[in-house]
């Protein structure tokens, strides 16, 4: 557990317990690890090493350990790398020694978690590196797997992104659907400002001519959606520093730097959580 925050991969103690319990229950079913029980002697002890098979940015190592500890309170865990580290292929991450059956049972849940979170951190780092030096900040989004948002946003942060809206209650983002229901952009923004929630009012615009009406109505931040770099430069010049500008929509690795160089303050990328491939991380055993 992180001694400064009291969190493990973004989870507090209660969230951690629920996650590990649910993940193991999903894998164990009602009958448990039948294969290990009928093939591995009850007294067997194993040594294991978890290592990466590709270059990665590590995320979720402390969480992965929890699966082994949950099933074997006496397991010996040696952590060889920390979250955020950039690791070369073949680099060991964890060494374990303990009872054979519980170690085999915990393996899949631990690896799935470590592979998924490290995959997100690794992809995020490539996007963060692509805009290095531009002064633009990379943001993640709410495009996450239901139930895994805290973990996935933790991994994107480890990879170099700044977390944007964790939940619907921690920011106001007025989008085209809200405007369509209310009837006009200005009325929608004024209503949000008048509510005095204490939350920043961000407004999505996809045309240049929407910018001044949004600002006049009280928008405190703009999200320029699916604008070309030329449109973004025009938006930056028009806003002239009055509010922060975020660029979003279809951002890819080969386009993100050109977007960042337009002068926008932020660029948000859904694919870093939505489409990250799992990292290739494996576990090898030996008899203890």
Short structural summary:
With 288 residues, this protein is an alpha/beta fold. It contains eleven helices and twelve strands. The strands form three sheets. The protein has a six-stranded parallel beta sheet. Strands 3-5-1-12 form a four-stranded antiparallel beta sheet, with helices on one face.
Structure description:
This protein has 288 residues and is α/β, with parallel strands linked by helices. It has two domains: 13-128 and 276-287, Quinolinate phosphoribosyl transferase, N-terminal domain (Aldehyde Oxidoreductase, domain 3, Alpha-Beta Complex), CATH 3.90.1170; 162-268, Aldolase class I (TIM Barrel, Alpha-Beta Barrel). It has eleven helices and twelve strands. The strands form three sheets. A six-stranded parallel β-sheet has the order 6-11-10-9-8-7. The chain has a four-stranded antiparallel β-sheet with strand order 3-5-1-12, covered by helices on one side. Strands 2-4 form a two-stranded antiparallel sheet. α1 crosses α4 (100-130) and α4 packs across α5 (149-159). The chain is elongated. The model has no long low-confidence stretch (mean pLDDT 96).
Task: Give the topology.
Layout: H1 13-28, H2 34-39, E1 45-52, E2 56-57, H3 61-71, E3 76-79, E4 86-87, E5 92-99, H4 100-130, E6 137-139, H5 149-159, E7 172-174, H6 176-182, H7 185-194, E8 201-205, H8 211-217, E9 221-225, H9 229-239, E10 245-248, H10 256-260, E11 266-268, H11 271-274, E12 281-287
Parallel strand pairs: 6-11, 7-8, 8-9, 9-10, 10-11
Antiparallel strand pairs: 1-5, 1-12, 2-4, 3-5
Helix pairs in contact: 1-4, 3-4, 4-5, 7-8
């Amino acid at each position: 557990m992180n001694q400064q925050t009291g969190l493990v991969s973004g989870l507090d103690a209660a969230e951690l317990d629920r996650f590990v319990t649910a993940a193991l229950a999903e894998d164990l079913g009602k009958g448990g690890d039948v294969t290990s029980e009928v093939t591995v002697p009850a007294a067997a002890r194993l040594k294991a090493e978890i290592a990466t098979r590709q270059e990665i940015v590590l995320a979720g190592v402390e969480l992965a350990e929890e699966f082994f500890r949950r099933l074997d309170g006496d397991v010996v865990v040696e952590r060889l790398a920390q979250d955020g580290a950039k690791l070369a292929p073949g680099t060991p991450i964890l060494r374990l020694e303990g009872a054979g059956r519980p170690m085999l049972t915990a393996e899949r849940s631990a690896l799935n978690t470590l592979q998924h979170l490290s995959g997100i951190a690794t992809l995020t780092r490539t996007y963060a590196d692509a805009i290095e030096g531009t002064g633009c900040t990379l943001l993640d989004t709410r495009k996450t797997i239901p139930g895994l948002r805290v973990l996935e946003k933790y991994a994107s942060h480890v990879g170099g992104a700044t977390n944007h809206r964790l939940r619907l209650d921690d920011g106001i983002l007025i989008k085209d659907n809200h405007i369509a229901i209310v009837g006009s952009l200005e009325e929608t923004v004024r209503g949000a400002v008048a509510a005095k929630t204490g939350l920043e009012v961000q407004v999505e615009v996809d045309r240049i001519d929407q910018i001044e009406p949004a600002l006049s109505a009280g928008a405190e931040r703009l999200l320029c959606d699916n604008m070309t770099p030329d449109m973004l430069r025009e938006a930056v010049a028009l806003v002239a520093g009055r509010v922060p500008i975020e660029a979003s929509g279809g951002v890819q690795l080969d386009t993100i730097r050109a977007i960042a160089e337009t002068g926008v303050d932020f660029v948000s990328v859904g694919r870093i959580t939505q489409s990250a491939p799992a990292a290739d991380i494996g576990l090898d055993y030996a008899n203890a």
